[in-house]
Description:
Shape: globular
Strand order of the largest sheet: 1-2-8-3-6
Structural class: alpha+beta
Distance between the termini: 15 Å
Strand content: 25-35%
Low-confidence stretches: 1-8, 13-48
Helix content: 10-25%
Amino acid sequence: MPYAVYRTIIISLIFLCAGFNVTAQTTAASASASASASASASASASASASAPTRTTLAEVLAKIPGPDGERYAVGMERGSLRLLAYAPKDKDTQTPHEQDEVYIVVKGKGTFFDGKQRVPFEPNDVLFVPAGVEHRFENFSDDFVAWVVFYGPQGGEKE
C-alpha cells in the first residue's frame, strides 16, 4: 500500500479522535479499475468491499477485555493495516511488534517510553513506534484509551 494511503488513514483517525465523522470512500478510478478486473479479482474485491468502512470506539471497546483478558480489540483490517483500540489497566505489558505502529491517544494522560526516552502524552497526541522497538505506556490514568494503527511490511518501513 502506498505511503499516501497510510498517511490518509492516519489523518482520518486523527480527525475521528477529534470528534469528526470519518468514513472510507471508493474513488471513481478505483471503481472503474474493479469493473475491468478479472472474475477472481472481482470476487476478491467484493469480499474486501464487505469489510467495515466505519467503526466507532464504543463498538471496539465493547470487545475489551477479550476472552483471555486482552486489553485490546481489532476494529478493522485491510491488507497490512490493522486498527485496534488499546485500553490497558494498571500496567502495559506489551512487547515489540513486527510492524510500524501509530498510537492516537483518545483519553487519559501518562508517560510513553519509546525505547530511548520518556515523553508525556494526553488526548489527541500521536505517537509513532518503529517495528521491533521496545515501548510501553507508564504511569497512565485509569481512563487511558488509544487507537493503534499497525501498518506496512514485517520489519517496518525502510527509509
